[in-house]
Design goal:
This protein is mainly alpha-helical. It has helices spanning about 5-25, 30-50, 60-75, 90-115, 125-130, 140-170, 170-180. The protein has a single domain, classed as Cytochrome p450 (Orthogonal Bundle). The chain contains seven helices and no strands. Its cofactor is heme.
């Protein structure tokens, strides 16, 4: 990701927060929503080489589907704990089928692009597809690895950024120093 595009993403995030806060000044601001959007965009860019949210905050159709799938995983609970929490097996099967369909579509697009260009890009999906035959990876294994990366990356990044923001709020001297360093 170039510095210019990274800067524009952060700038649009700050602008979006300012606009929404100005409209709802009596309400508290939940940063998790905004930070989640940034981490979603970053992790999908790493995994698939594509941004699903533009600098205006609009989400691409495929990105909406991906975000919905990611949010539903939390609703179903991690599949690891299915024995602990009751689960509607039919709904869970639909969720998995929807996730697999979308991911296979993305993988197929990467395969077509690879064949046209004659080389792999530098994205996690492309790396896995390139190594598929060498390490005998199945599509299901690749799908699982991609979604593990998406979920782990989104949650970890969002929580870390949220914690950092809370620490900044608790330390006005540090906020001032950050503002000076970033010319805000």
């Amino acid at each position: 990701m170039s510095l210019i595009s990274s800067t524009s993403i952060v700038f649009s995030l700050v602008l979006n927060i300012k606009c929404n806060f100005a409209r709802n000044s009596a309400k508290s601001l939940l940063l998790r929503k905004y930070l989640g959007a940034v981490s979603f965009n970053n992790i999908t860019r790493i995994a698939f080489g594509k941004r699903y949210v533009d600098t205006e905050g609009r989400i691409h159709k495929q990105g909406e589907e991906m975000r919905s799938i990611a949010d539903n995983r939390l609703r179903f609970g991690a599949s690891t704990f299915r024995w602990l929490f009751p689960l509607n097996e039919e709904e869970f099967a639909k969720h998995v089928a929807r996730r697999d369909r979308l991911t296979r579509e993305i993988m197929e697009n990467h395969n077509v692009a690879h064949q046209k260009s004659g080389g792999a890009k530098q994205h996690f999906c492309d790396a896995l597809l390139t190594l598929k035959e060498k390490y005998d990876l199945t599509d299901d294994t690749i799908i699982g690895l991609l979604w593990d990366m998406i979920h782990a990356g989104m949650e970890t990044t969002t929580i870390s950024m949220e914690w950092a923001m809370a620490e900044l709020i608790r330390n006005p001297r540090v906020i001032q120093k950050v503002q000076e360093e970033t010319n805000v």
